[in-house]
């Protein structure tokens, strides 16, 4: 067979990445997948492609090259507007005829594709020679045509693809990237349609698109043909999978976020090849993919990334007739893979206005400015540079406007939409899928766009105050004393994957319950006892889940898993719930199950709830979530911790309850820690050490209960001091006695962040680790290193 360089049409199976100059980036990558990964189980779609030789023959047969060169020369010299130049070039290409030999070759390949299948609909995709490059995605610059049927329609679609090489957006994009306009050529790829119009389709990345974490696969999915996700016209489901545990046979789906999926693209009728229709209520309320399908796609992403040896951006689809999944294309990821891993820039909001709306955060920055609402990219002249662009969705025509913006906010779209992809390339914060930005935000309104608070981005009224810190991760000192992180918000946990922490010293599940679950555990189990309004709220929250119990377990497990993934394989200590009764009562349905207490701080909290008949069923749900995280999802780095354990009898009863719920200490490498926050924990440290694998000192409660000072009392603020000799004596004593039994001791609290001298004391007392908030990690790490250096002369024997 002649090479792709010589042929007018070639089978996709016959090309590879080496043929990019002959068939363009998209088609070369498809051939690479088919030739090297199909045999490994990655299901791809074959087909054929016209070549660059065919494109050049098309231009030559119609004498188009001189005309294109003249028009481009006038544009580049500033004598012709972009819109005029692009329109005139496209008009000439669309009027031109395909050479007879090229038309015959395309029809012959199409008939071969149809052989044995009868009628076959095809997707006709553009593949430029300057496309899908490591430093430029060219997302959506040329055209794609779906559900093309018949030879005449196919030839017309091929000609329209060739003309799309000169869309205004493609010309502008090439100019911005310094690519010679006249040297670029175009190949057309033709593949049988995957009938995702009857199922689902989407996009996935083999790297976390927001944090750059290389251990996470991100998958977006929605019903119908996948163009709606790429265009950003639909709010898709989002799934995250932790890659390192896939090979071990675990099921590490660490996030399932249900999108509204308001509409879907399906086959059209008559001359319209596709049409946009509303999804059914049942489709909106359910997840588009089952876990087995999510895991299959994630495994394929890992294989594809390994073959290309770089992070990848992939499109996939599910055939509604056969139930099979397919990879449609793969290209290099162009943003996170190029970021400097030794730097971590963090934004911290200090003073902010009222929250106006929220959506999916893109990037991790903050920007301020005046709102500019735009219904169309054609209104570019009214957009003032430095404004916040607010619109329904974006497509490649919006890029010139986006380049002028300080931030971008859209009504629709997910993290893999056009708005998200281009915002990342431009380094702009964006909030997509808000649902109502164009209705809520006013033209000219001063606002703040914050993507610095986790996966959820928020638009605040007014100009907020914020600070920016650049952390040089290459300059973090090494210490014998471990410095761990306090993490509570799963949405923000992965943002800190680059920090060289020694693990997570305290992950509070209360945050997950309050923000993601929102319902009292017993209210989920005894829904019939609640009022109508509470039942309706629970029904809305749990829609799509098999039961209220499954909703609680799945949501809690997902949140814990994201925190565990952020520091895997380092230890992550997860504390069981320590709500006070008044805090539990504020959850949906909570007032029906909580007593009123005069002093909730010293009331029914922590360990005392877990074995109580009045909460035992609720604690069982917490245990089920932890068991799922460790055993099904594979996060054996998770250590569980018991808070506010007052007595030895209580310790025994809690351990028995844990075992009864499938969390037996020592089984499957499970370690159980206890909070040391009550003087009895120190007084009976030997006995507690016999029951638990480690201690975590809660300095706030220990100080409060040692000194008899309400930690929340402003009047007694001067008396609340973790460095009081009574408190430091207890801390030193528990460290010594725990070490005598081979148990580790950590301290979680604010004091190490605020007081370098307290760090000196802890290091001198021999503490194993301190756990601090991520924003104070570097400061505390340096203070620990200084304290260790100060002790070195004392540790040296006399000469």
Provide an overview of this structure.
- With 799 residues, the protein is of the alpha/beta class.
- It has four domains: 9-193, ATP-grasp fold, A domain (Dna Ligase, domain 1, 2-Layer Sandwich); 197-337, D-amino Acid Aminotransferase, Chain A, domain 1 (2-Layer Sandwich); 340-470, Phosphohistidine domain (Glucose Oxidase, domain 1); 671-799, Phosphoenolpyruvate-binding domains (TIM Barrel, Alpha-Beta Barrel), CATH 3.20.20.60.
- The protein contains 29 helices and 30 strands.
- A hairpin with a 6-residue loop joins strand 10 (263-267) and strand 11 (274-278).
- Helix 3 (65-76) runs antiparallel to helix 4 (82-95), helix 4 (82-95) packs antiparallel against helix 6 and helix 28 crosses helix 29 (777-795).
Can you give me a brief rundown of this structure?
With 799 residues, the chain is an alpha/beta fold.
Computed Rg: 30 Å
Mean pLDDT score: 92
Number of helices: 29
- Can you summarize the main beta sheet? 8 strands, parallel, barrel
Second CATH tier, the architecture of the largest domain? 2-Layer Sandwich
Residue windows where pLDDT falls under 50 for at least 5 positions: 132-138
What is the helix content? 25-40%
> CATH class of the largest domain, please?
Alpha Beta
- The strand count comes to 30
Any idea of the CATH topology of the largest domain? Dna Ligase, domain 1
The CATH homologous superfamily of the largest domain is named ATP-grasp fold, A domain
Portion of residues in beta strands equals: 15-25%
Q: What structural category arises from helix and sheet content?
A: alpha/beta
Shape: elongated
Distance between the termini: 82 Å
Strand numbers in spatial order across the main sheet: 23-24-25-26-27-28-29-30
Number of domains: 4
């Amino acid at each position: 067979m002649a090479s792709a360089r010589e042929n007018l049409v070639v089978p996709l199976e016959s090309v590879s990445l080496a043929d990019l100059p002959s068939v363009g980036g998209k088609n070369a990558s498809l051939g690479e997948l088919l030739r090297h990964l199909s045999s490994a189980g990655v299901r791809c779609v074959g087909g054929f492609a016209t070549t660059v030789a065919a494109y050049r023959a098309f231009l030559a047969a119609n004498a188009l090259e001189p005309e294109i060169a003249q028009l481009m020369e006038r544009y580049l010299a500033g004598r012709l507007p972009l819109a005029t130049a692009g329109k005139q070039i496209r008009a000439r290409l669309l009027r031109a005829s395909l050479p007879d030999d090229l038309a015959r070759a395309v029809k012959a390949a199409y008939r071969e594709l149809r052989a044995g299948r009868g009628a076959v609909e095809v997707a006709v995709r553009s593949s430029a020679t300057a496309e899908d490059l490591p430093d430029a995605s060219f997302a959506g610059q040329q055209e794609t045509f779906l559900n093309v049927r018949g030879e005449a329609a196919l030839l017309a679609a091929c000609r329209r693809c060739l003309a799309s090489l000169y869309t205004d957006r493609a010309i502008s994009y090439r100019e911005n990237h310094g690519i010679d306009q006249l040297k670029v050529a175009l190949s057309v790829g033709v593949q049988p349609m995957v009938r995702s119009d009857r199922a689902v389709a989407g996009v996935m990345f083999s790297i976390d698109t927001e944090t750059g974490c290389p251990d996470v696969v991100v998958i977006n999915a929605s019903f119908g043909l996948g163009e709606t996700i790429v265009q950003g016209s639909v709010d898709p489901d989002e799934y995250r999978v932790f890659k390192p545990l896939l090979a071990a046979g675990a099921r590490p789906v660490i996030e399932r976020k249900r999108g509204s999926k308001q509409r879907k693209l399906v086959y059209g009728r008559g001359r319209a090849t596709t049409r946009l229709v509303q999804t059914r209520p049942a489709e909106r309320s359910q997840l588009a993919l089952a876990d087995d399908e999510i895991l299959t796609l994630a495994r394929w992403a890992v294989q594809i990334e390994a073959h290309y040896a770089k992070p990848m951006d992939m499109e996939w689809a599910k055939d509604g007739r056969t139930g099979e999944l397919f990879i449609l294309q793969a290209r290099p990821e162009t943003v996170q893979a190029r970021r400097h891993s030794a730097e971590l820039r963090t934004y911290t909001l200090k003073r902010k206005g009222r929250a106006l709306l929220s959506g999916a955060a893109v990037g991790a920055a903050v920007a301020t400015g005046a709102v500019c609402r735009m219904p169309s990219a054609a209104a570019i002249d009214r957009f003032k540079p430095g404004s916040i662009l607010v619109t329904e969705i974006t497509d490649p025509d919006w890029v010139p406007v986006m380049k002028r913006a300080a931030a971008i906010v859209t009504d629709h779209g997910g993290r893999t939409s056009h708005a998200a992809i281009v915002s990342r390339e431009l380094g702009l914060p964006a909030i997509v899928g808000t649902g109502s930005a164009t209705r809520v935000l006013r033209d000219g309104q001063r606002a703040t766009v914050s993507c610095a608070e986790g996966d959820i981005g928020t638009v605040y009224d007014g100009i907020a105050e914020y600070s920016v810190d650049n952390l040089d991760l290459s300059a973090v000192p090494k210490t014998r004393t471990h410095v761990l992180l306090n993490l509570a918000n799963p949405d923000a946990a992965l943002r800190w994957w680059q920090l060289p922490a020694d693990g997570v010293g305290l992950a509070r599940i209360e945050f997950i319950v309050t923000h993601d679950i929102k319902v009292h555990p017993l209210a989920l189990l005894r829904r019939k006892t609640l009022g109508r309004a509470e039942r309706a709220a629970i029904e809305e929250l749990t829609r799509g889940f098999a039961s209220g119990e499954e909703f609680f377990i799945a949501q809690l497990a997902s949140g814990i898993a994201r925190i565990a993934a952020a520091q895997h394989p380092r230890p992550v200590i997860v504390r069981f719930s320590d709500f006070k009764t008044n805090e539990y009562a504020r959850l949906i349905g909570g007032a029906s199950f909580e007593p009123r207490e005069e002093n909730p701080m010293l009331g029914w909290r922590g360990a005392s709830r877990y074995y109580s008949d009045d909460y035992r069923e609720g604690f069982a749900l917490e245990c089920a979530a932890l068991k799922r995280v460790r055993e099904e999802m594979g996060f054996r780095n998770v250590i569980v911790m018991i808070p506010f354990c007052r007595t030895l009898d209580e310790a025994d009863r809690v351990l028995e309850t844990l075992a009864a719920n499938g969390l037996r200490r020592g089984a499957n490498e499970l370690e159980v820690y206890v909070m040391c926050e009550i003087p009895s924990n120190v007084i009976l440290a030997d006995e507690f050490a016999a029951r638990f694998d480690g201690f975590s000192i809660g300095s706030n409660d220990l100080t409060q209960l040692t000194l008899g000072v309400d930690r929340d009392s402003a009047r007694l603020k001067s008396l609340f001091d973790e460095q009081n000799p009574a408190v430091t004596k207890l801390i030193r004593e528990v460290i010594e006695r725990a070490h005598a039994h081979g148990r580790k001791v950590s301290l979680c609290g604010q004091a190490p962040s605020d007081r370098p001298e307290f760090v000196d004391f802890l290091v001198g007392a021999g503490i194993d680790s301190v756990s601090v908030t991520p924003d104070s990690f570097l400061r505390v790490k340096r203070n620990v290193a200084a304290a260790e250096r100060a002790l070195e002369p004392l540790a040296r024997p006399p000469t």
